[in-house]
Amino acid sequence: SQKYVKKIEELQHGNTCLESDVEQHIAEYQDMMKCCATLQAEKQELLDDIEESEKRLSIKLDELQKAELEKEEIIETFEEAIKEKERALERSLAEKCAIEGRYKEKDDELKKKEKSTDRDSALIPL
User: Fold this and answer.
1) Whole-prediction pTM
2) Which of the two ends of the chain, N or C, has the fewest CB atoms closer than 10 A to its terminal CB?
3) Which residues contact 29 (CB under 8 A, 6 or more apart)?
4) pLDDT reading at 120 higher than 70
């Protein structure tokens, strides 16, 4: 009977140790669950930040694409204006050359008449 009492005491002591170990494991498990919850919250926060950043980047990309199109339209407009100015200058130059040509012809005719008149007047005795 003494033997059984001792065995019971040993078993009770073992149970106490096991209960203590179980309680310690439960506390560690709860700590790990708290850490997991914290990490999950941080992960979600980062995912939300990434999603927000992607939205802002998408908006900026759209703005850049619009600006690029506007720039191309402005460049095309300037190129057309430059071409129109060049055509106008070419027309102007052609008109100037034509006018100068007519003036030269008239000037040549006048010079011929002057020479002819000078010769004619030289032939007429005074």
Assistant:
1) 0.51
2) C
3) none
4) no
